């Protein structure tokens, strides 16, 4: 009896000496990646897929071939033959066949839909279109007669990205205050609601307003699901979970392309994508809340039930001692924040840190610009716009998992630098390859997307390892926020093709090349201890530093 009491006291003493956290319990007792975690990941796959539908504007607001309406030859309305035999009599020839936004000045005569002679036009003087004829009707460009307003058309993507940026702090607050599950459901409901309303837009302004509201109040789906997924697995499988999430997002993008391909009407396509979002509301009753969040909020009774459910599903057990240790409030160390001004002074005083703070945001700008830019511009590669988009998204999946292996064997710096250079080289090659080599051009394009996918997966890791613990979160957030300049600009890049069709790809190549060169200015962090202090961060890359 005394021996048992002594053993129990010793166990309790050991628990006090060694603070047990949820990772210890996952590793040693209930399992890091068991049936429970797999079931939760399968449930989370639906919102991860849905998160990709925020890029649906690529198809609903897609550019469609158009030309000037010729009323002198009996043309009224938009539903007319796009390329009649007489078209070059009224509209000047161009590299794409004929001009999209200009026509010859009329002299006063009249023709008909069957015969429109050249002598009723002044072929020495060009004027802008008053109205348009379109080759297709499956875009807001047709319904709202946007014609040559290319910058207005692409503004839908920019508004979407701005909303995606603004939703992050809102989702973060809901997630930390009310739980991961509530944040996920609220975002998904808003996303489905405003997306469905947008399908009934009566004008382009309404389309833009509800597109912004949809992302501003609902685009936190992916971040909510990502945090959920990474919090429920053990440390050993966290990198795998981190690769699964963007891969599911890529699958969602492929589904988006398939739905857009199969459903011609942009209104019906939007409804098909967004109505299923309301299914996720049911997750409130059968998706378990994050145990980590429950423990952090000291909701111990719910945390206890959740842990027991995990253990039962994984066919394991959690010891009473570990359960008691997790239910014991942690003693918090009071940290007195030094404020933003102090951080700025420290950055300015340290030439090494200042150089990094000026370098890493550019990596993020280049990454988001090229990553989103290649996806958006893929629809203009050829007439097979849907297949091009699906393939461009599919190539991300091997890129995500390849990065996990490359980072562990080659290191951070070569991986990031190589991804930038590969993507840049492919963009430059794409410009010079003749259009007749369609398959070669597509393969080079996909290889460029593969390269930037490697960068996306490795950028977060490398950036965070360059900064000391005391400033890591703030400086990583700074780089990520500045990087949104790239994602906000990416939807506008198709409009640059008005000046020269390869302008976007030269821009992507130049940004990737410059970003890759800037990576070479920073030290390798692979195998090094994470810097906790400014002095340790400054020692990175120096001879003998560990």
Automatic annotation (TrEMBL):
InterPro entries: MFS, MFS_dom, MFS_trans_sf, Sugar_transporter_CS. Keywords: Membrane, Transmembrane, Transmembrane helix. Residues 40-527 form the Major facilitator superfamily (MFS) profile domain. The chain crosses the membrane at residues 41-59, 151-170, 182-200, 206-228, 240-263, 269-287, 353-374, 386-408, 415-433, 439-463, 475-496, 502-520. Signal peptide: none annotated. It is found in: Membrane. It is a multi-pass membrane protein. Gene3D superfamilies: MFS general substrate transporter like domains (1.20.1250.20). PANTHER family: SOLUTE CARRIER FAMILY 22 MEMBER. This is Major facilitator superfamily (MFS) profile domain-containing protein.
């Amino acid at each position: 009896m005394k021996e048992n009491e002594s053993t129990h006291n010793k166990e309790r003493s050991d628990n006090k000496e060694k603070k047990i956290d949820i990772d210890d319990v996952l590793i040693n007792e209930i399992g890091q990646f068991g049936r429970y975690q797999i079931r939760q990941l399968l449930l989370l796959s639906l919102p991860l897929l849905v998160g990709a539908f925020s890029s649906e504007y690529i198809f609903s607001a897609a550019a469609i071939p158009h030309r000037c309406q010729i009323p002198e030859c009996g043309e009224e309305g938009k539903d007319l033959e796009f390329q009649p035999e007489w078209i070059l009599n009224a509209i000047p020839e161009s590299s794409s066949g004929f001009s999209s936004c200009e026509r010859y000045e009329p002299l006063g005569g009249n023709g008909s839909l069957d015969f429109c002679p050249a002598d009723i036009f002044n072929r020495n003087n060009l004027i802008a279109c008053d109205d348009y004829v379109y080759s297709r009707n499956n875009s807001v460009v047709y319904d709202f007669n946007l014609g040559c307003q290319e910058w207005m058309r692409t503004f839908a993507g920019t508004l979407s990205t701005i909303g995606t940026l603004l939703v992050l702090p809102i989702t973060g607050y809901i997630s930390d205050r009310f739980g991961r599950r509530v944040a996920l459901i609220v975002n998904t409901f808003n996303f489905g609601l405003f997306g469905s309303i947008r399908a009934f837009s009566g004008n382009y302004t309404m389309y833009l307003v509800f597109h912004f509201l949809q992302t501003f109040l609902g685009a936190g789906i992916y971040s909510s699901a990502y945090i959920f997924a990474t919090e429920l697995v053990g440390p050993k499988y966290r990198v795998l979970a981190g690769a699964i999430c963007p891969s599911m997002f890529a699958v969602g993008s492929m589904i988006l392309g398939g739905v857009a391909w199969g459903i011609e009407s942009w209104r019906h396509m939007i409804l098909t994508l967004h109505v299923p979002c309301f299914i996720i509301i049911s997750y409130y009753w059968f998706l378990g809340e994050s145990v980590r969040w429950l423990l952090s909020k000291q909701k111990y009774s719910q945390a206890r039930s959740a842990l027991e459910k995990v253990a039962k599903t994984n066919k394991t057990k959690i010891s009473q001692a570990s359960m008691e240790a997790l239910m014991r409030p942690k003693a918090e160390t009071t940290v007195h924040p030094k404020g933003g001004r102090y951080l700025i002074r420290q950055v300015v005083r340290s030439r090494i840190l200042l150089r990094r703070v000026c370098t890493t945001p550019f990596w993020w700008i280049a990454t988001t610009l090229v990553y989103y830019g290649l996806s958006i511009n893929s629809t203009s590669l050829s007439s097979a716009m849907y297949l091009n988009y699906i393939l461009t998204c599919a190539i991300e999946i091997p890129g995500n998992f390849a990065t996990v292996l490359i980072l562990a064997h080659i290191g951070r710096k070569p991986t990031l630098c190589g991804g930038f250079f590969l993507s840049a080289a492919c963009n430059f090659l794409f410009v010079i390859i003749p259009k007749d080599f369609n398959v070669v051009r597509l393969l080079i394009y996909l290889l460029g997307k593969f390269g930037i996918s490697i960068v996306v997966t490795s950028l977060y890791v490398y950036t965070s390892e360059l900064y000391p613990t005391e400033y890591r979160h703030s400086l990583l957030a700074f780089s990520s926020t500045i990087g949104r300049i790239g994602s906000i600009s990416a939807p506008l890049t198709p409009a640059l093709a008005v000046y020269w069709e390869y302008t976007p790809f030269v821009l992507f190549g130049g940004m990737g090349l410059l970003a890759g060169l800037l990576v070479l200015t920073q030290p390798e962090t692979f195998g090094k201890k994470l810097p906790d202090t400014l002095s340790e961060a400054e020692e990175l890359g120096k001879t003998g530093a560990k």
